[in-house]
Amino acid sequence: MEKIQIKDLAFKIHISEQEINQRITNLAAQMNVELAEARPVFIAVLNGSFIFAADLIRQLDFPCEIQFIKVASYHGMQSSGKVQELIGLNISIEGRLVIILEDIIDSGLTMDYLVKELAKAKPAQIKICSLLLKPKALKVPLEVHFTGFEVGNEFLVGYGLDYDGFGRNLPHIYQAVEPTKE
Ligand code: 5GP
Ligand code: MG
Question: CA-CA distance, 6 to 9, in Å (whole number)?
């Protein structure tokens, strides 16, 4: 088992590059059927979703747009629970189908905030697409229309997800390993 070290933490592979690619191909195939006529605007949440968004939309074969926004940053191993301002939405989404692209939904507070903020711009509908979902960590009810993988509450890095800024470049998704178990 490939182990890596980022700062003070050891990580092992949780979801391999191959599994990620396969799942994204399936998600794209589903969207190619469901969204073919919808002309959606994808709104990818920076920083974490940049790789997922890039891999997903290149497999979509219908007309669509993509925009990038930013909300609260994530520091250390626990979600702060504090949500900052939404920045970067510089197009009108009025009357449009919006698909939010996220790397991971943990407590769901960021997504809940985002949905409420975006709703103020009067889209026809908002759908959520998250590569990763931690169902046991959810603190608010959320309907996630497209989910890549359901995971436990372990801390993950790689494939866009960071630990204190590092690890986004890793091709696999890794989980933190308890130091005592090693
Ligand atoms: P939420 O508001 O749902 O609690 O947290 C959402 C944000 O927290 C995600 O967009 C992500 O930036 C960060 N986050 C939650 N869980 C993890 C994790 O396991 N690893 C990393 N790297 N970030 C996470
Ligand atoms: Mg994120």
Answer: 5
Share of the chain above pLDDT 70, in %: 90
Q: What is the pLDDT of residues 47-99, one digit of tens each?
A: 999 999 999 999 999 999 999 999 865 454 555 546 468 999 999 999 999 99
Q: Pocket of ligand 1, candidates 114, 116, 161, 163: which has the most ligand atoms within 8 Å of its Cβ, to mutate?
A: 161
Q: Is the CB of 167 under 6 A from ligand 1?
A: no
Helix axes of 50-57 and 17-34: crossing angle, nearest 10 degrees: 60
- For residue 106, indicate whether it is catalytic: yes
Which residue has a Cα nearest atom 10 of ligand 1? 104
pTM value?
0.93
- The CA 36 to ligand 1 mean position distance, Å, reads 30
Condensed to tens digits (0 to 9), the pLDDT of residues 130-147 reads 999 999 999 999 999 999
CB of 130 closer than 8 Å to CB of 45: no
Report the residue among 9, 51, 69, 79 best suited for mutation to probe ligand 1: largest number of ligand atoms under 8 A from its CB: 79
Compute the distance between CA of residue 152 and CA of residue 32 in angstroms, rounded to an integer.
Answer: 29
